[in-house]
Amino acid sequence: EPMKDSHLETKVGFFVLAGLLAAAGLIVAFGKIGNYFRKTYPVVVEFEDARDILKNSKVLLRGAQIGIVADTPTYRVGQNYVELTLRVDDGTQLPTGSKFRIDQYGMLGDRFVRVVPPDVMDGTFLPAGARVKGEQEAGLNAMMASAGPALDEIRSAARRVDGFAKSAQELLDEAKNGKGPLYTVMKDEKMAQDMKNLMANLRKHGVLFYSDDSAKKDSDESKRAEKKSAPIERSRP
User: Fold this and answer.
1) 47 lies in which domain range?
2) Of 74, 109, 136, which residue sits at a domain end?
3) In this structure, are residues 80 and 48 in contact, taking their beta carbons and an 8 Å threshold?
C-alpha cells in the first residue's frame, strides 16, 4: 500500500504540472490571439534607424497603450529608411502632425513607439494607411550616442592640459636645479624685463591688437632725454 500511495502521488503531481503548463500556454496563446482579433488600422512610420524594436512592441500615447507594432522593420533596396507598420486601436484617433519616436524603458528595458501629439491641433486625424516620418529616438541611448564625440573632445583636451602641466612641472624642476630655459630667463635681467613687458602688453591689448608699449615708452624717454640735453649743448661757449 505505501508503494501504491507513492505512485498515486506521482501521478497527481504530473497531472498538476501538466495543468499548470497548459494554463500558461493558453494565457500566452489567447493574449496573442486577442491582439489579432482587435479592431485596428495601420499606420506606416518611416524611421532612419529602428534598431531593437520587435514585433508586438507597444505603441503608447501619453503613457496609455493604443496599439502594437505589427511586424519587425522592413527595408527595401534604394531606401534610406526602414518602414515600421503600427496597428493602432480602432477607437483611437491620432491628430495630424503627431510625432512618432522609438523610446525605451530605462537603460535595459523594452523598446516601444511613443506617439507625441502636436501642441496645436487642427481638428484633422491620420487616416488608415497613413505614411508619416518618424523622429530619431530621444531616449538615454540616443543622448549617450550623441555625447560620444563631445566626450572624445573633452578627453583630448584633458590629455593636452595634462601634457602642458607635466611640461610646466619639468621646467620648474629644472629651474630649481639651476638648469633649463626658465632658469636662464630668471637670471637674465633684460630677458626677464622683456617677458614682463610682453605679459603686460598681452593683458592690455590682447593677441589680436597687440602693441609694444614698452618700445614706445623707451622712445619717449630717449626723446625727453635729448630735449633736456639740447639746451645745455647750445649754451656752451
Assistant:
1) 35-136
2) 136
3) yes
Q: Give the DSSP letter string of 38-105.
A: S-EEEEEEEES--TT--TT-EEEETTEEEEEE-SS-B--TT-SSEEEEEEEETT--PBTT-EEEEEES
Report the number of distinct structural domains present in the chain. Answer: 3
The pTM assigned to this predicted structure is 0.47
Give backbone dihedrals phi and psi of 67, rounded to 5 degrees, phi first: 170, -170
- The verdict on residue 102 lying in a domain is yes
In a domain, 170, yes or no: yes
Query: Span 40-69, mean pLDDT?
Result: 91
Do residues 101 and 137 lie in contact, with contact meaning Cβ atoms separated by under 8 Å? Answer: yes
Instruction: State which amino acid sits at residue 179.
Output: K
pLDDT given for residue 117 in this prediction:
94
Side chain identity, residue 222: S
Tell me the backbone φ, ψ of residue 165, rounded to 5 degrees: -65, -40
Which one-letter DSSP state was computed for residue 120? S
> Which has more confidence, 62 or 224?
62
| Average pLDDT of span 187-191 | 70
Whether residue 80 sits in one domain with residue 39? yes
